[in-house]
Amino acid sequence: MAELGRPVAYLALREGTPVYGRAGERIGVVDHVVADEPTDIFEGLIVHTLPLPGRHLFADADQIAEMRERGVLLAVDGDDLHDLSHKPSRHANRGDSVESPLEARLRRAWDWITGQL
């Protein structure tokens, strides 16, 4: 991974940075970094898939193995990322109205994609 440069913090990632699956295949590019800014907690990435026009996927923070100057390496395959082509819904059969942490991150990613932030 030396060709991807040195490790970086999420704050250094830029739109258009290549994103690679765990086997090294290019999945897409960083479209947006999702973070809880008040607490400075990295939550994940919105990945725009290739070829364009592509679709949007959400890579949760625990699905990311490395963030480097010239690329992001996932700990999973692209098929394991969360599809953002439709609005995330809460589990109807849970019987409660409390979002899980993942559901909250997916909702924030959806809100960014749809311009609701």
| CATH topology term | SH3 type barrels
Our measurement of the CA-to-CA distance between the termini, rounded to an integer number of angstroms, reads: 35 Å
- What is the H/E string? EEEEEEEH
User: Poorly predicted ranges (pLDDT <50, ≥5 residues)?
Assistant: none
CATH H-tier superfamily: PRC-barrel domain
Query: Based on the structure given, which CATH architecture is correct?
Result: Roll
What Rg, in angstroms, do the CA atoms define? 14 Å
Overall 3D shape:
globular
Indicate the CATH class.
Mainly Beta
Strand content range:
25-35%
Structural domain count: 1
Please state the structural category: mainly beta
Q: Portion of residues in helices?
A: 10-25%
- Mean pLDDT rating: 86
Total helical segments: 1
Largest sheet: 7 strands, mixed
Short description:
By secondary structure, the chain is mainly β. Helix content is 11%, strand content 33%. The chain has a 7-stranded mixed sheet.
Question: How would you describe what is shown here?
Answer:
This protein has 117 residues and is mainly beta. It has one domain (2-86, 96-113): PRC-barrel domain (SH3 type barrels, Roll). Helices cover 11% and strands 33% of the residues. The protein has one helix at 101-113; strands at residues 18-20, 26-36, 41-49, 56-60, 64-68, 71-74, 82-83. The chain has a seven-stranded mixed sheet.
